[in-house]
Amino acid sequence: MHFNEQQIEQIKSGTPVVAIAKRCGIPRRAAFRAAAQAVIDGQLDDRVLSHCMIAEYHRVLTKTPAKSLAPAKNSSAPKPTQAKLAAVGYDTERAAKTPAEAWAEHRDAFERKVAKSSKSHVIKRQDASPFVIYHITDPHLDDDATPLALIESDIRASHAMNAIMIHGGDALNNWPSSGRLAAKWGDQQCTLEDSLLRLRHYIDILAADVWVDGNHEEMSSHLIPLINGMLGDETIRDYWRCDVTIKSPGGRDLRLAVSHKFGKGKSWFHALQGHIREMLEGRDIDLLLDGHMHQAGVLEHHLPERGTTTLCVASAGYKVVDNFASRISHGGKAPRIRGRAHWIVVDPLAPAGAALCTAFTEPEQAAAYKAGLDMARRIAA
């Protein structure tokens, strides 16, 4: 119910709301509610509210739509905050997103995701002369069993050959801070702070052309963003696997794929099973590089049904004494140097049907083979 104008005037003149309710034969609670509504509508001053009407007033207030409360003057004018946002290009009156719009917005995200996952990177060379690829993986720079001086020596030898530098993952142990593997921090002298300093130095001296991460980069949430910030813009960067085509003008292109591990099954005795399955199920690739299992292997495999030949290379990494390798019977007790990394010599002028690339386990061998190819090309010219 609502009070009429006469009843409003009586209340203003001092007549109690209870008296009006009794005179009109209406319940006291209904009269209190009508008085509260009159206050909200601005017909009565809130001083007419007695303590017994307060609860009814709040009950009515909470049920009253915001638009029925005292309307602001010039409510159609934009508020200062909205005007400021509109001035810099924001639409503050934008309608809510519809289900169809949310559905349609997926297209851009999907297309970007597919384009990124299927992208093949390109490295362009100046000529068709022989060149070297240095594949370093699993250096585990913070491990006590990693010979940092040997890594530095191998990097210097690779740069001396102007090699294309490829990092295959697991730069650090990067043990997690909780869980079962957290105890592994006790097995190494290097602290978290020093491990990041070593990583910074490694990235600086390596000057990687291609970089992929491994499983150890994923053991904590901080490392991959830090690596992203340390690597230069010129480094080709991808998750776990990266496809690269090296173009040599006047010679054959080299199609390579580097992965921390081609994870399509594993064999206790065959280090290159994942490579062969990748050949059978994937695209035509000339060179497949991986690591992760801390064992070395090289295999040139030919697929006659495709007419393609692929060089498969697995590098063991630089943990020369390795409990993990011992556990999986890969000879981790004895110091292991051979196969720690590979230097692949590529001959873009190799005739069709001949080997495009050859892998070596020592940089001196790769340098000698490359020098022989250079001399042969000069003589032939």
Please characterize this protein's 3D structure:
This protein has 381 residues and is α/β, with parallel strands linked by helices. It has 2 domains: 5-68, no CATH class; 118-380, Purple Acid Phosphatase, chain A, domain 2. The protein is 35% helix and 16% strand. The chain has 13 helices and 12 strands. The strands form 2 sheets. Strands 1-6-7-8-10-9 form a 6-stranded mixed β-sheet, covered by helices on one side. A 6-stranded mixed β-sheet has the order 5-4-3-2-11-12, with helices on one face. Strand 7 (254-259), helix 11 and strand 8 (287-290) form a beta-alpha-beta unit. The protein is elongated, with a radius of gyration of 38 Å.
Brief summary of the model shown:
The protein is of the alpha/beta class.
Report the helical percentage.
Answer: 25-40%
CATH architecture assignment name of the largest domain:
4-Layer Sandwich
Order of helices and strands: HHHHHHHEEHEHEHEEEHEEEHEEH
DSSP strand content: 15-25%
Number of domains: 2
InterPro entries: Metallo-depent_PP-like
Protein name: Calcineurin-like phosphoesterase domain-containing protein
